[in-house]
Amino acid sequence: WRNAYDWRATEAQLNQWNSSRVEIDGLGIHFLHIRSPHPDALPLLMTHGWPGSILEFRKMIGPLTDPVAHGGDASDAFHLVIPALPGFGFSDKPRSTGWGVGKTAAAWAQLMDRVGYGQRWAAQGGDWGAAVTTALGHMRPPGLIGIHLNMVMYQATEAEIAQATPEEQRMLADAQRYDRELSGYMKVHSTRPQSVGFALSDSPVGLAAWVYALFQDASDSGGEPERVIELDALIDDIMLYWLPNAGPSSIRFYWEGMREMHKQGPAPAMPIPAGVSMFPGELLRLSRRWAQARFDDLRFFAEAEHGGHFAAMENPKTLTEHVRETFRLLR
Fold it and tell me: Which stretches make up the Epoxide hydrolase N-terminal domain (predicted)?
């Protein structure tokens, strides 16, 4: 990081992808806007989570916007809008409470309208991006035709637990292990974000250790994330927290988001067409039949052979194909 890493190369790549800003509800939002060379491409909003960033989608940008150049078909092309969540990356840091999942989803709908895609568009996300995308689906803003998720936030019912298959029992056991052994960061973020925020702002090594820990725990890598994600890509991700001092502000999204979830309770079934991808190393997985109980119109469901919580970085080829297959059914 200190001697060989080249941030300027990453900076040039960000600028190549039409790095832009727009103000929504008084907050400056940074986003990438990559138009496909194919005029009939479907606009797609892609939302990251923590400790991800807009750069986590970089290996999907080419195949999604220009499928022909990557051995695909022009009919699968997308125009991409990839915003940084409030308080993340080069988006502004909220100075008042309220910028949680719901307000962000409403802002994203405004963003798609502002860039000219309000009549017909789709949305995709994982982690907090999945929460925002799910909220969009429930809001049903004009033009949104469907969503794709590579993580589904859910609570198994008593009946599902009692009738779980062996594979579903393993999913439940993995979720319990995550809650018991690996979720300490989430509990700190959602209850005392300012306390740890000072440390994340003060020390690049401390920030790197805090971020790297989740890549260790949540990637499908046996605790060695460099096996599945290039070291420079990991450092790029950390830099998008360090350079704009987004460590403290980004984790406040947990404080906002978890309060929303506790207040709202279990969500009703998703009312619009949806696709779901499950990756074996994901922190929270569910079966097809459990997914069908939570989506009124589940058009696509698939389980990947490898990959974890950071699917766009670990297995971009499979996630790209799943996104294509989902929206191929809705174009």
Answer: 1-57
What pLDDT does residue 261 have? Answer: 87
Whether 2 maps to a domain, the answer reads no
Structure confidence at residue 80 (pLDDT): 99
Q: Is 248 a member of any domain?
A: yes
Positions marked active-site: 127, 254, 309
Please report, for the domain that includes residue 35, its CATH number. Answer: 3.40.50.1820
Tell me, what's the pLDDT at 224?
Answer: 97
SS (H, E, C) the chain: CCCCCCHHHHHHHHHHCCEEEEEECCEEEEEEEECCCCCCCEEEEEECCCCCCHHHHHHHHHHHHCHHHHCCCHHHCEEEEEECCCCCCCCCCCCCCCCCHHHHHHHHHHHHHHCCCCCCEEEEECCHHHHHHHHHHHHCCCCEEEEEECCCCCCCCHHHHHCCCHHHHHHHHHHHHHHHHHCHHHHHHHHCHHHHHHHHHHCHHHHHHHHHHHHHHHCCCCCCHHHCCCHHHHHHHHHHHHCCCHHHHHHHHHHHHHHHHHHHCCCCCECCCEEEEECCECCCCCCHHHHHCCECCEEEEEECCCCECCHHHHCHHHHHHHHHHHHHCCC
Could you tell me the residue range of the domain that residue 312 belongs to? Answer: 7-328
